[in-house]
Amino acid sequence: MKYRTRTYYTDSQKALMWERWKQGETLHQIAQLFDRSHSSIQRILAETGGIRPPERHRSRLALTMAEREEISRAMVAGFSIRTLAMLLGRAPSTVSREIKRNGGQGCYRATRADQAAWDRAHRPKSCKLAENQALARIVTDKLQRQWSPEQIAGWLKHTYPCDENCHVSHETIYRSLFIQARGALKKELLQHLRRTRGMRRSRHYTQKTDNHGRILDTVSISERPATVEDRAVPGHWEGDLLFGGTSSQIATLVERQTRYVMLVKLGGTDTETVVNALIKNARKLPQELYKSLTWDRGKEMAAHKRFSLATDIQVYFCDPHNPWQRGTNENTNGLLRQYFPKGIDLSSHSQAKLNAVARQLNERPRKTLDFHTPAEMFSQIVASTG
């Protein structure tokens, strides 16, 4: 069998890889550009956890190649250190150190000195989490509680507004997880992220398509009042089904203003089963806190009129093939995948278990709520209506 030799990619080829990776292309698509296997590309990208390393550049204060050539010629001509320093407009100590660290007056060579300086400068900046173990322990604890890096970073600033030592950006947390060479956070913590992939991926990806059937007598989302659209008043919800393995599913409901989540156990996806479960759930809240429901055009809501008649809650439907119009619910379903990965049998979870998951999600701080929790915001509304 004939084996291909290992490929060593040029800097320009690596730059092209990173550009395509940022655009959301797969490893296989990128590999086709170079007529190589995807594992060859993965080897390059995985070295830094799928995060493009910053381009190196010289400090504006460093000696240039032209200055080093002047030093080399001056050494041959027998110039003194001070005279040479005056010609270059540099401090005598700068010129003296440059010559001593690169072989002395008799062995100084400009090209060799310039390369040596570039090699010596190749040292990564120490990671803040590696230096601050107390902060790293806080971040680790929050990750284990299923908080996202952005939630952790926002909570730290909110909790310790005057202590810079307790602040860390969400990007630093991500880099510490994906780039293990930093030695700050253990790789096992990756499993607590919403998406448990081993490398950072681009935000550009193909969203799921809406293949639900058509239902009758729907009220379009375009007819939804402006107060619902701008989240000016509470009590307006978005809903959808979250599917698992063996045709199992649960209903997910999220309040638009507070992002408060409720989960409903279902025995099937037929419209009678779904609507009956939603009616039972709706009766747990006062009318002031449940005024409307926006749903995708799934056939499980074909009996929406019966739901509205039983609860006095108006149902609005997204436009065909536009599930993003329920963006709050779509985002919530993404968060729920941390607790219910794709393929898991959802029918094995009791309503009590679903309530516990919803409670945990509602107690996580949210950036859009200025890092308050949905539970805090919803409790304030309940108190004001009471």
Structure description:
- The longest helix is centred in the N-terminal third of the chain and has 13 residues, at 65-77.
- Helix 4 (65-77) crosses helix 7 and helix 13 runs parallel beside helix 14 (304-311).
- The protein has a five-stranded mixed β-sheet.
- The chain contains 17 helices and five strands.
- It has helices at 11-22, 27-34, 38-46, 65-77, 81-88, 92-100, 110-120, 128-131, 133-144, 149-159, 170-178, 226-229, 271-282, 304-311, 327-336, 351-362, 374-385; strands spanning 236-243, 249-255, 261-265, 292-295, 314-317.
What are the key terms here?
single chain; 386 residues; alpha/beta; 4 domains; 17 helices; 5 strands; elongated
